[in-house]
Specification:
This is Quinol:cytochrome c oxidoreductase quinone-binding subunit 2. Keywords: Membrane, Transmembrane, Transmembrane helix. It is built from 17 helices and no strands. It is mainly alpha-helical. The chain has one domain. α2 packs across α15, α3 crosses α16 and α11 packs antiparallel against α12. The protein is globular and about 70 Å long. The relative contact order is 0.18.
Length: about 400
């Protein structure tokens, strides 16, 4: 006799949870402290802010792609954890507010925003049709309009399907996702050019867009894993998200560790063997002084360690190992963004500031506060998704 799988957990996030309020509190304190730092050292403030902003925005964008891929492929494996990704993406239109300080700090961050510098530099003059302040600001609005619409719409329709049990809405989700994926690909590539690559306006890489995507997508899986571990430690979805689903997340984590290494090495190799001064200088500055320690750390802790550990099938099922490796990769993910951006401000070596911490806590508190605030408003699992039973059955049969 077949056993039809059912969900025994409550699908409502605990109403009395103080997590969202606590996170918003941390975020407010962090941002206020950072604002004090602005008056002490504006350049440091804007660079610290940019690193943290890119860190968290990249996580939300990776979640957006994951939702769209889920719909376009009609996959069943991730139905139980999809609402987590949707809750990140649903807030992208609100998160757009936090690009404003990047715009306000354009003269502190970007050399190409100074007209006198452009007039005195032939290379910058040649790039001025793209790298100019009005167009930069306009592009930020375009990016977040695309991401905000996609995230809001996909979350709204998914929640509507919970209420109406109308499986026809899955067709609408695919119709939104199909054009959404190429729009996402273009917008995230150009956003990475704007935020990070144009910090060194003489430098360019044809692979930088996919490189930025690869670091963000690799870091997305540790966020998912640690978030689920945190919720299950509080008794949330403890019997619903099972070991096999955790294994799937570990497998994705492993896969994109390999993908990241392939893309990062390919970018380095292309620039290395071309051996053009305007291209190699970017790596030269990041491989001198104390910056080289982060570069070696990326090789060890972002690729070698997670690759060798997660290569083992059992490691992908071991929550302790997965948790430790996830935490390490998130730390080194922050270090990599820091390594990309900060040598523009400090050319000769690492110079940590307390604002690196306050901006991270400030934006991180708001980012996860928004997530939990959205997550608790609806069922934590898409309970009427047509693929839900397949996803649950997998946990019973494996």
């Amino acid at each position: 006799m077949s056993h039809k799988p059912t969900i025994t957990d409550s699908l409502q996030f605990p109403a009395d949870s103080k997590v969202p309020r606590a996170l918003f509190g941390v975020g407010a304190v962090g941002l206020i402290a950072s604002l004090v730092g602005y008056f002490l050292d504006a350049d440091q403030f804007f660079f610290s802010y940019l690193v943290s902003f890119v860190f968290f925005t990249g996580i939300a964008l990776a979640a957006l792609l994951m939702v769209m891929l889920h719909h376009i492929t009609r996959s069943s494996w991730g139905v139980l954890v999809r609402r987590i990704s949707e809750s990140f993406t649903a807030n992208l239109w609100i998160w757009a507010i936090f690009v404003v300080p990047v715009i306000l700090g354009i003269h502190n961050l970007y050399h190409w925003s100074h007209e006198d510098a452009v007039m005195a530099d032939k290379i910058l003059k040649g790039k001025s049709a793209y790298l100019n302040t009005p167009f930069f600001i306009a592009r930020q609005f375009i990016y977040f309009a695309i991401w905000g619409y996609l995230g809001y719409k996909l979350h709204k329709v998914s929640v509507e399907m919970d209420k109406t049990n109308d499986w026809g809405l899955t067709s609408l989700l695919r119709k939104v996702s199909a054009p959404g994926i190429p729009l996402f690909a273009l917008s995230i590539a150009f956003a990475s050019f704007d935020w990070l690559m144009s910090l060194d306006p003489h430098w360019f890489s044809t692979m930088f867009g996919v490189y930025f995507f690869s670091i963000s997508f690799q870091a997305f899986w540790p966020i998912m894993i640690l978030l689920i571990f945190f919720m299950q430690s509080k008794g949330i979805l403890k019997n619903t998200i099972r070991q096999v689903h955790i294994y799937d997340l570990g497998a994705w984590f492993f896969a994109f560790t390999v993908f990241y290494a392939y893309i990062a090495f390919s970018q380095f190799l292309l620039i290395y063997y071309a051996n053009l001064p305007e291209e190699t200088l970017w790596y030269f500055h990041r491989l001198e002084g104390s910056w080289k320690y982060i570069a070696y750390g990326l090789l060890i802790f972002r690729f070698a360690l997670p690759f060798l550990v997660l290569l083992n099938r059992e490691a992908k099922k071991n929550r302790t190992i997965l948790g430790i490796v996830s935490a390490i990769v998130l730390i080194i993910h922050f270090a990599e963004i820091y390594w990309i951006a900060m040598p523009v401000l400090f050319k000769h070596g690492i110079h940590f500031s307390w604002m690196d911490i306050t901006t991270f806590l400030g934006l991180g508190g708001i980012f996860f506060g928004l997530f939990f605030n959205k997550f608790k408003q609806h069922d934590m699992v898409p309970k009427n998704d047509p693929k839900l039973e397949d996803c649950l059955s997998k946990s019973y049969h494996q």
